[in-house]
User: Which sequence fits this backbone?
């Protein structure tokens, strides 16, 4: 990067590699530099959106997801991001009808795209807020399969198990978490 700091392919490749290695902070910084040079870089905006949502940086998520939506609203991954934006706006506005509608859209799309962590995170949050704990646990387990090192998923599962009074499963999950 010393010789060509704005080279988009090199920066994107490096960002993708460090993201795959789990170095999300460094990946975020590289993607951010990429979209500073190239604001219409769709993959950069999508990656920043996903990383922001996964780290609960919701304002940052909404900013990059909205930018991605302006670039390519018909892109399948962008559609997922825009569902998440509408869900989070409904939560912020305490609009339970809109929140439930966005949750249902996320659940429907997740049937088509079960690998989407964005949809999974929205589904988990929505199901927990609607106290549909058994459904939430199913989604949490799917998310854990995708990302077994994300501790927040285990915390969500603990909360759901606690709400259901599943003390034996809580004990087993806590032992599993110690091993992570």
Assistant:
């Amino acid at each position: 990067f010393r010789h060509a700091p704005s080279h988009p392919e090199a920066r994107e490749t490096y960002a993708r590699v460090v993201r795959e290695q789990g170095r999300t902070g460094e990946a975020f910084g590289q993607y951010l530099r990429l979209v500073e040079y190239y604001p219409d870089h769709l993959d950069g905006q999508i990656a920043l959106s996903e990383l922001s949502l996964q780290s609960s940086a919701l304002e940052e998520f909404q900013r990059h997801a909205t930018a991605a939506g302006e670039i390519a609203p018909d892109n399948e991954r962008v559609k997922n991001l825009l569902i998440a934006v509408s869900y989070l706006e409904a939560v912020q506005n305490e609009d339970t009808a809109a929140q439930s509608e966005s949750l249902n859209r996320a659940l429907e799309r997740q049937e088509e795209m079960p690998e989407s962590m964005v949809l999974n995170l929205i589904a988990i949050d929505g199901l927990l807020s609607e106290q549909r704990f058994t459904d939430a646990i199913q989604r949490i387990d799917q998310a854990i399969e995708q990302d077994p090192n994300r501790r927040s998923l285990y915390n969500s599962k603990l909360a759901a198990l606690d709400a259901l009074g599943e003390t034996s499963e809580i004990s087993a999950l806590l032992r599993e978490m110690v091993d992570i």
